[in-house]
Amino acid sequence: MRTVTACLVVISALLGTGTVRADDPQPIPLWRADELSPKGDPASEKTQERAANGRFVSNVTYPTLTIFPASADKGPTTAVVICPGGGYGGLALDWEGYDVARALNTIGVTGIVLKYRMPQPAVTKDGKPLPLLDAQRAIQMARANAKEWNLDPNKIGIGGFSAGGHLASTAGTHFDPPDANASDPLLRVSDRPDFLILAYPVITLTNPIGHSGSRQNLLGKQPDEKMIELYSNEKQVTDQTPPTFLSHAEDDPVKCENSLLFFEALRAHHVPCELRLFATGGHGFGLGQKGGEPADWPTLCQAWLVKQKFLDTAP
Is residue 14 a part of any domain in this protein? Predict the structure, then answer.
């Protein structure tokens, strides 16, 4: 198959947004400009520097992938498409994106940070939300370019934090079968992730557990009840949902029942899963860099990946 990256050109306007730094890998466009509907504009992005957690990027209309390759010494690697959180209103690009990718590199995993578009529910209406289109495309692109990017095409997962966790769980419950006759070569490739890693995720959009801000940004102020049901992902689990690792704190304002609902749905369908629930930790603990109970979750997740045979390197 012709590799997709051969035809991708990095748009110089990306360098003027304040998002890219000199020590960052160069992002690549997720779509050609003529494939984006509505039209994307990288110059529309707004970047805030947050002292504790790094860059927060909002108004994303031009999605990209930033690849942090693991060492090629041992052949094709496991990969994780990373979806930063931000309530579907922006992206915690460093704290829940680039920092995560670099941490994955230390255990021999390639990190692929997805800078996904913010939803435009007035435009997509009853169609797929823009972030889901981007997540599916990211998985397909990683799989289609597995040889070039030194990836194992059968070990490509997706992970997410907060609303990014909702996006990752949506990719794990709303995947489509590949279309062998599609004119677009990426559509001939499966968009089903091989595993999910969900940290303090938004899962349900239903009251009283659902996170109202994420729901409004994703589906609009007065969403159709059918759309709320469709994207309450605990209701979309099947026996084909990928194996899943979850971590959450009980004192999180994004209620831990989100993870509990998904975990119970996975168990009911006999999907391999593990939930690490911490008494304290709040919301947005990232990789646990600030200490406390959640500090151990990356090591616990690594052990789970080994147990599920997605990784060889034990903690």
Answer: yes
Q: How far is CA 305 from CA 143, 152, 156, 231, 308, in A?
A: 19, 14, 12, 26, 5
Distance separating alpha carbons of residues 205 and 203, to the nearest angstrom:
7
CATH number, residue 293: 3.40.50.1820
CA distances from 143 to 46, 66, 105, 138, 181 (A): 30, 15, 18, 9, 18
| C-alpha span between 50 and 59 (Å, rounded) | 17
Tally of domains within the chain: 1
In this predicted model, what pLDDT tens digit does every residue of 231-274 receive, in sequence order?
Answer: 999 999 999 999 999 999 999 999 999 999 999 999 999 999 99
> Among all chains, which residue has been given the structure tokens 């230390």?
106
* Boundaries of domain holding 274: 4-307
Prediction pTM value: 0.93
CB 263 within 8 A of CB 256: no
Interval 119-159: pLDDT, tens: 999 999 878 999 999 999 999 999 999 999 999 999 999 99
| Secondary-structure breakdown of the chain: helix, strand, coil percentages, each rounded to the nearest 5 | 35, 20, 50
Residue 249 near residue 283 (C-beta atoms within 8 A)? yes
Report d(CA 204, CA 210) in Å as an integer. 5
What CA–CA distances, in Å, run from 94 to 227, 232, 275?
31, 27, 25
Q: Regarding predicted confidence, which is higher, 9 or 313?
A: 313
**Per-residue pLDDT, 165:** 98
Tokens read off for 116:
């996904």
Q: What are the start-end ranges of the H helices in the chain? A: 99-105, 121-124, 130-144, 163-171, 212-219, 225-230, 257-268, 297-307
Using CA atoms of 34, 124, 203, 265 in order, give the dihedral in degrees to the nearest 10. Answer: -100
Answer whether residue 313 is part of any domain.
no
What's the CA gap between 225 and 223, in Å, rounded? 6
What pLDDT sits at residue 18? 57
How is residue 14 written in tokens?
Answer: 């990306």
